[in-house]
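Troubleshooting: if your tokenizer reports a length mismatch, compare against these two reference records.
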Amino acid sequence: MSPQRRDEILERIAQRIKQYGLITPAVLFLEMNKPLTFIASQAVHFFSPIVGVFIANVEEYAYLMEDRENVDRLIRRLEELAEEEDRERRRKRTR
């Protein structure tokens, strides 16, 4: 997977998490389960023929989870989005 495609997928995931207001729970979940990401990716590869019917590009997500660095990238991006939201809230309060 190219770095550009990886970043696109991570950004899409981060924006979806932000859309639902789940940044903090998502960061906690990812931090707690970071050691299991490789095992989870292998499970996704195994079940991809079944899960692929319901989720498009499931193989890309599996390849993404194989590398723990990608989980760290996602966590960093979520933290950036949380900081942006905080700055936005503070700016609105000062007006």
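Reference record two:
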Amino acid sequence: MVVPGIPIKLLVKVPCAIIEHEGRILAAQRSASGSLPLKWEFPGGKLEAGETEEEGLEREIQEELCVEIKIGKQLPVTERDDIVRIIRLVPFVCQLATHDIVLTEHEQILWLTPEELPHLDWAEADRDVVRHYLDYLAEKNY
């Protein structure tokens, strides 16, 4: 329902990649000069007009890390309200299809075990993705 005088918030869909490789997961540290400086995240980005979540994710990973990925299972969506918009993070468990990572936007990356993931200073929306991913692993290994 639209209420007069209350602005409608923009919904921004942001697919992100939980990239697994040899038992470790890639975490990327945001740039010091951008929004949420030096927070950790799963790489990805906003969709462009007409893109599916998978197409946008493949493009963003190519732009940010210069690699190709194989997209697997989608995990639960998380949302973060940042006053003027709602960020909808759509995580996918992914594998590397190519391996020579070149950082174009991030300060650094780390390859972490699942147990190490909760110890980083994650961006708010990514904290829930970490929790959902650990739940996914627990169910998978049950």
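Descriptive notes for reference record two:
- The chain has two helices and seven strands.
- The chain has one domain: 10-140.
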